[in-house]
Amino acid sequence: MVINELLSNSHAPPGTDWLEIYNPGPIAVDLNNVYLSDGRFDLLQYKIPGGVVLQPGQFWAGLQGTPPDGFPFGLAVAGETIFLTAATSDPVPKPVRVLDAVRFGPVEPDRTLGRFPDGADCFVALTSATYGAPNAKPLIRDIVINEIMYHHPTDDDRYEYVELYNKGASTVSLAGWAFTDGISYDFNDYTQMSSGSYLVVAKDPNFLKTVYNNLVVGSNLVGPYTGNMSDHSERVRFSYPIQELNPDTNQIETLMVTEDEVTYYDGGRWPIATRATRPRGSNFRSPLTAMIRNTLMIRSRSSILYCSIAARCF
Fold first, then answer.
1. Co-location of 155 and 245 in the same domain
2. Does any domain span residue 314?
3. CB of 34 within 8 A of CB of 85?
C-alpha cells in the first residue's frame, strides 16, 4: 500500500486537502486497522473507515474533515511527512508497521503531488489532479537543469557549474529564485532567461569564462555559488518563490517550490566512444526527456541515471 497522490495547498473551492492510497500489489488488501497521520509520534490520528478492501490497482481517497468522514489534520502548505500505518485491532490499538511514508515540500496552489506511474518510487508535481483515479503525467516546468559539471579530470572545483535552460515560450524573471539543495545560490532581481536561452551558474565564474570563450559574466554566466557538489553523488534542486499565508501565525511567508531537481551518481559502463568524448563528471539532459516526460536521463563519465523530474529520489 502506498500514499499515491495528495493535495496540500488547496485554494479553489471547496478548498479541502485530500489524500489518495493505491494498491500496487497482486492481492487484495483490507484497510481495516490502517491509519493516516502527519505526526511521527502520533501515527494513529485517523482510522480509515471499516469495510474498505482495495483490489490490485484500486484507489481509496479521503478528504480533510471530521472523522470518520474525513481525516482531522490539514496538510502543511510548507510541506511535511504523511504516514500510512497498520495497527492492532485491540480496544486501544497500537502501531504495528509503517506501510508507507511520504515527505513533500511546498507546492503552488491547487497543484497535486503524486507518483507516476501509480505506485512508483518518487513523488512529483502532476499536470492535473486525479482524485481516486490513475495519476496524470508529471509536470515538467519551463526552466530545467540541463547540464552539470561536478567532477573535472583535474579535480579542480573551479571547473564546476550547473547549466539552466529555458525550454518555455516566454522570458522568465529569476528574481527570488535559488538553488536550495546541493549548492546554494540566490539570483538577483535583474536576472532573466529568454525563451531558448541557457544560463551557467559557476563555482568560480571569473575562472570559467577563461575556459569557455562563449561565456560572459553577468550575461549567460553568474555565480559564485556556495557549497561543493559531490564527486560521486548529489541531489541538486532549483526553486522559485511563492507567497502563502501561514495559518498558525497569520503572516505571509515566502516558500520555495521546486522548479527542477536532479540526482546524479557515478556507476555503470559507457561505450568506449562515449567514454572518450565526454569529460568526466559532465552530465547532460538527454533530448529523450521531452518524450519520456517523467524520466530524466543523465550521463556522466561512466553512468546512466534515470530519475523522476522534480522529485525527491532517495
1. yes
2. no
3. yes
Q: What is the pLDDT of residues 205-250, one digit of tens each?
A: 999 999 999 999 999 999 999 999 999 899 999 999 999 988 778 8
Q: What is the CATH number of the domain that holds 209?
A: 2.60.40.1260
- Residue 97 is predicted with a pLDDT of 97
pTM for the complete prediction?
Answer: 0.82
Asked whether residue 130 is assigned to any structural domain, the reply reads no
Q: How many domains does the chain have?
A: 2
User: What angle (nearest 5°) sits at the alpha carbon of residue 183, between those of residues 177 and 189?
Assistant: 25
Alpha-carbon gap, residue 250 to 256, rounded angstroms: 18
Q: How far apart are CA 193 and CA 173, in angstroms?
A: 6
What's the count of helices (H) and strands (E) in the chain, helices before strands? Answer: 3, 24
Q: What's CA 37's distance to the chain center, in Å? A: 21
Regarding whether 158 and 291 lie in a shared domain, the answer is: yes
Name the residue with higher pLDDT: 61 or 276: 61
Peptide bond between residue 224 and the one before it cis (omega within 30 degrees of 0):
yes
Residue with cell 547540464: 147
Please compute, for residue 293, the number of CA atoms within 13 A of its CA located in the half-sphere on the CB side. 10
Please tell me the distance from the alpha carbon of residue 181 to that of residue 262, in angstroms, as a whole number. 10
